[in-house]
Amino acid sequence: MNIRLMAAALLASVAIPAFSANATDLEVTHWWTSGGEAAAVKVLAEQYNGLGDNHWVDGAIAGSGSTATPLIVSRILGGNPMGATQLNTGRDAEELVKAGLMTDLTDLAEKEHWKDIIRPASLLASCTYQGRVFCVPLNIHSWQWLWLNRHVFEDNGMKVPANWDEFAADAPKLREKGIVPLATGAPWQVDGIRNVMQVGIGGKETYLAIYDKKNADAVKNPENRKVWDAFAQARGMVDDSYSGRDWNVATNMVITGKAAGQIMGDWAQGEFGVAKQVAGKDYDCLPGLGFHALLDTGGDSFYFPKNSNPDITKAQLELASMLVSKETQVKFNLAKGSLPVRGDVDLTAASSCMKKGLEILKNPDNVLPGVTQLIDPDTRGQMTDLGLQFFSSKMTVDEAIEKQTAIFKQAQ
C-alpha cells in the first residue's frame, strides 16, 4: 500500500466533514474502555465540554491498541477521519504524518512553549517530523511494573516479594494454595511481559543496544539470555485460560486474590483505584521488577486528522491546548494511573506507586524510550509473534535467541 499516493487523492477529494451538522462536535476515538480508563476519559470529556461550545463525541473502540489502531488508520485513509484520536506515543502514525494526513500543531506548540514544559523531551520528539509537531503527548505510561496483591502473600504466611526472583521462588507455594502466580492475557500482554523483562532483567545497556542501536550481536550477550530465562519462568506461572483474557480482567484477578501478581503498565493503577484499593496496604508495585528502577516513557498521544472544515480545525486546536493544561494533566493522570507530561503540576494526591514513578522520573538517566518509539511496527510484530510462540510452546532459550538475532539483523 502506498499511503502517500492514497493520501494525496483523499485530501483532494474529501470535502464533507465526518461529523454532525454542529461543526463544533468533535468525534474522539480511543480504546479506553475498562473501568479505570472510562473514568479517565470522563475527565477529558468534561474538561473539553466545559470550554464552551465544544462537544466531545465519544468514539470508544473495544479492545486493545493493537485492535483499535488498524481501524483508526483505515478510517483516516478511507476519507472518513475522526476529529481526534488516541494513538501510542511513537511510530504508529509515522506513515500518516509523512503522507500529510495529520493537522500541523507547530504554531500552537510554539505559542504554548510545549518544548519547555513537556518532559522527557523524547515524547515531543516522537510527535515531531521534519521540525513540525503533529501530535500532543497526554501522559507518560510505563510498562515497567509488577503489581502484587499484598494480602495473598501476608495471609498465607509469605513475605511480599521485593523482586522478580523472590516472586518466582514463591510460585510453587502459591500454586499449592490454589492461587495463580501470574495473571495475564494474550497476545499483547505476553509481548509486554517480555519487553518489561528486557529492561527489568536485562538492564538499560542491553535494551538500548538491541532496540535503539539494532545491534544483533547484543542479542547473544549473557544479560539477554537472562531475559529469556525469566520469560521461560513466566510461562510456567500462568493458568491454562490466559489466552484471550482482557488485561483488566487479569488485573481484577490480582485485586480479588485469585492471582498473586501481574506484569502490566501503570494504567493498572486505575483499576486498583476504582476498586478502592490502597497502594502499600492492599497492593504493591515493583518498578523494573525490583531490579532496575527504570521507566520506558511511552504513553498516549492525540493526533488530529486533517479535514476540510475550519470549525473542526479550531475545535481540534482547542482540545490540543486543553490536553497539556495543568488542570487536565492533574485530573486525567490521577484517574488513569499514568504520570503527567508536565513536571510543574501538583500531585500530592498521588498514590505511593505513582510517587515511585515520579521519583524515578527526576533522574533523566532512569528514563528510556519505549519500544514503540524505537522499532517500526513490522519489527514489533515479529517480536510479538516470537514471544507468543515461545510462551505457548516448549521452544528453548537458545532457539529464541537465534530467532531474535535474525529479527534484529533486518530491523529498522
TrEMBL record:
Pfam families in the cross-refs: SBP_bac_1
Major site of localization recorded for this protein: periplasm
Protein's cellular compartments: Periplasm
Gene3D superfamilies: Periplasmic binding protein-like II
Signal peptide: 1-20
Highest rank taxon of the organism: Bacteria
Keywords: Periplasm, Signal, Sugar transport, Transport
Positions in coiled-coil regions: none
InterPro entries: Bact_solute-bd_prot1 (IPR050490), SBP (IPR006059)
GO cellular component: a single term: periplasmic space
Entry keyword annotation includes Kinase: no
Function: Part of a binding-protein-dependent transport system for a sugar.
Family stated for the protein in its record: Belongs to the bacterial solute-binding protein 1 family.
Protein name in the entry: Probable sugar-binding periplasmic protein
Species of provenance: Rhizobium lusitanum
